[in-house]
Specification:
Blueprint lengths: L2 H10 L15 E5 L4 E3 L7 E7 L2 E7 L2 E8 L4 E2 L2 H6 L6 E4 L3 E7 H9 L3 H25 L2 H11 L1 H6 L2 H8 L3 H20 L2
Antiparallel strand pairs: 1-8, 2-7, 3-6, 3-8, 4-5, 4-7
Helix pairs in contact: 3-4
Length: about 200
């Protein structure tokens, strides 16, 4: 069961080694149906996770409106790691947008990982990974146009555009669904005009 976690850790910290038999007893998977919540905003924050199968979204509410921060397909971490460490309520919700399986990482798992010889360095790498990911997302929200964000998503993770409902894509881009439809139509017409030129 630890293999997906090992792959994720190897991605951010290739030198990390440990006896995975110490981690295995504390790992569990949780199956979610489409629409189910793994975490609700405001709930006690006692776990983070890694998507094994399916796709979830992380979002929060502002003025009663859902704002999607991240999509979490296979191999992606999810949850509110900072508030898990600080033992504060979660500030994000995590909801399955497909039937999904999640590897649950609770405090016991993190404690075992930290106890490895390179555990403290691993935790720093995890914090940096999550911080840089959030930094890039926030910079994009402030710096890029919705069209630039859509094109970046199309380039980096085109499969998500087929898997994720359009109203969630719109929320991720900071648009209303009608505006996303217009943006897609404009991009499509621009491609057609380029193709028609000799």
């Amino acid at each position: 069961m630890h293999e997906p976690l090992g792959l994720f850790i190897h991605h951010i910290f290739p030198q990390f080694t440990m006896d995975w038999s110490l981690v295995e007893p504390h790992l569990e998977t949780r199956s979610l149906k489409k629409g189910d919540f793994l975490i609700h905003e405001g709930d006690p924050c006692n776990l983070v996770g890694l998507t094994l199968h399916g796709c979830l979204r992380m979002f929060f509410l502002k003025d009663g409106k859902e704002l999607t921060l991240f999509f979490c397909p296979e191999g992606y971490p999810l949850g509110d790691y900072q508030n898990l460490r600080l033992q504060r309520p979660a500030i994000f919700s995590c909801q399955a947008i497909e039937d999904s399986d999640v590897l649950i990482l609770n405090r016991q798992v993190l404690t075992v990982l930290e106890s490895a010889s390179e555990g403290p360095q691993l935790m720093r790498q995890v914090v940096e990974f999550l911080a840089f990911r959030l930094r890039d997302r926030l910079l994009s929200l402030y710096r890029d146009t919705p069209e630039q964000r859509y094109l970046a998503l199309m380039e980096a993770e085109p499969h998500l555009l087929q898997r994720v409902p359009q109203h969630y894509i719109a929320s991720y881009l900071g648009l209303e669904p009608e505006s996303l439809s217009r943006l897609k139509r404009r991009l499509y017409q621009g491609q057609l005009s380029k193709q028609s030129k000799p």
